[in-house]
Amino acid sequence: MNQHPPASPAEKPLNTKAPANSLGSLLAMVRSELVRAIEAEFASQNVDLSFTQYLILKKSQELGTVSATELARAVEIDGGAMTRQLDHLERKGYLRRTPHAQDRRALRIELTEAGHTIWRDPAFACSNRAMAAAQRTLSTSEQAQLHDYLERVLHTLRDKN
């Protein structure tokens, strides 16, 4: 009878049991929890913004004056939802719609001084606190690795064609 000694830890087969959550489910749950954490941070600081409004302000800050269509594409929401959010943000005084210089039918979206201020001060700080809290169990090296992994996955998904 030919018996082999037990495998050493290095020779043990990999655990082929599926993880409890798929990568897609895990990413969706992480995003949902981040949205919840950022909105809770806004509420605790009396910042009158939803997460979607925060994204619109963030993209407006990054892109400068753009059309509503360009902004909707950048934030990844449909035109109808963008119009509703722009209405809310305009009422709050955070952005304004101005006529396009060459096309009277088109409007340009730009942040007001109040929009720049809320983005620069409380909104950005709230977001940073929520992100720091989400990563508090990760070392600086692990945070960098996670960012790198996610950037690579995103790049691969966007370049699939």
Low-confidence stretches: none
The largest β sheet comes out as: 2 strands, antiparallel
Terminal Cα separation, in Å? 56 Å
What is the global morphology?
globular
What's the pLDDT, averaged over the residues? 87
Helix content: 55-70%
Beta-strand content? 5-15%
Would you list the SSEs in sequence order as H and E?
A: HHHHEEHH
Give me the Rg, rounded. Answer: 22 Å
How many distinct helices?
6
Number of strands: 2
Numbering strands along the chain, what is their spatial order in the largest sheet?
1-2
Return the structural class: mainly alpha
Description:
The protein has 161 residues and is mainly α. Helices cover 60% and strands 6% of the residues. It contains six helices and two strands. It has a two-stranded antiparallel ribbon with strand order 1-2. The longest helix is centred in the first third of the chain and has 22 residues. The relative contact order is 0.11.
Short description:
The chain has 161 residues and is mostly helical. Helices cover 60% and strands 6% of the residues.
